[in-house]
Amino acid sequence: MRSLQSLQQRFAEKLTASPHLGVVLLDQDAHLVEISQMACKVLGINRAEVMGKHIDQAFAGIPEDNRLVQRELLAGVKVHNQAISWTNSNQRYELLVDSNTLHNDEGECIGAYVLFKDITNLRSFEQKIERSDRLAMIGQIAAGTAHEIRNPLTSIKGFLQMFLKSFTESGMERERSYTEIMLTEINRINALVSEFLLLSKPRDVQYSLVDLNTVFAEILPIVESQALLHGIEVQYLAGDLPLVVGDTELLKQVFLNICKNGLEAMGKEGVLSIDHHVEADSDRISINIHDNGPGIPLYVIDKIFDPFFTTKDEGTGLGLSVCQKIVHDIGGQIRISSKGYGTTFHILLPYL
């Protein structure tokens, strides 16, 4: 009997110590009896601070409807293999959740449990395959149409530049202003075609060692000037950054695009902060770009990297798709965390 109890105890210890399984155990009064380290990591809590506390105290900072562990569990609400998205302050997780009640020999409820497995990498892999299939199709379209679009645009742009010079010399201000508008729109079409090709077609990029400190030193004046126009404060807290392998200009494009999105999300006031942390379980550095705008709904986060998906009136829907492709091509990853009171983009890059 003693050996059986010892076996059960060892099994429970192994279960709660597993880095791949989240375990939360409640008693009949909704107090936390046990919580695994992996569950603490995902839920963003400290085990020592929440053990023995009621779940309303343990998760006081999270609205009840948004909690992963809820009191309804003790009322018999069961969950089996439910896929959910969960975001703490640092990271977004894809979880597979099971929950149920526990009863004694008399059939009385004595507690409840929640088990969940982190399937973020699996989900990310599936999405990457789906996205690669879409990009392959886009590549076929782009290869056949990009030059056919650009050739007539080059001719139109050349003649418009001639008209602009003539109108300027003749003092025809209204015609000159109309011509400038047309040239601006043609440049916008050309930029769209360039993004289209970058997204869909492999590039002969010459990778080299990139000093991220230099990259941010060059782009921060641009970001700060745009922020100043909207009354937004930029806080650069990244400190000393390591070297990464990549393309300097493409990484500038990534950081500028994400910073610009943050500024646009905040509107006329707010704080855009840039910092970093080193991933404890990998050799990657995370550049974190945070805005305190309205946040991004979960249904939008699921589509935000899809080509041509945009919530902007004049957006092309290619900016973040291009950013993700650039980062993926150097072995990195972009994650998003948003809880309705701001959004953080985590750009994870292998570093030296």
From TrEMBL:
Keywords: ATP-binding, Kinase, Nucleotide-binding, Phosphoprotein, Transferase, Two-component regulatory system
Listed EC numbers: 2.7.13.3
Alphabetized InterPro entries for the sequence: HATPase_C_sf (IPR036890), HATPase_dom (IPR003594), His_kinase_dom (IPR005467), HisK_dim/P_dom (IPR003661), HisK_dim/P_sf (IPR036097), PAS (IPR000014), PAS-like_dom_sf (IPR035965), Sig_transdc_His_kin-like_C (IPR004358)
SUPFAM superfamilies membership: ATPase domain of HSP90 chaperone/DNA topoisomerase II/histidine kinase (SSF55874), Homodimeric domain of signal transducing histidine kinase (SSF47384), PYP-like sensor domain (PAS domain) (SSF55785)
Span of domain Histidine kinase: 144-352
Catalytic activity: ATP + protein L-histidine = ADP + protein N-phospho-L-histidine
CDD domains to which the protein is assigned, alphabetical: HisKA, PAS
GO molecular function: ATP binding; phosphorelay sensor kinase activity
Annotated NCBIfam families: sensory_box
Protein name: histidine kinase
Gene3D superfamilies noted in UniProt: 1.10.287.130, Histidine kinase-like ATPase, C-terminal domain, PAS domain
Domain PAS: start-end pairs: 23-53
PROSITE patterns for the chain: HIS_KIN, PAS
SMART domains in the cross-refs: HATPase_c, HisKA, PAS
Species per Swiss-Prot/TrEMBL record: Brevibacillus fluminis
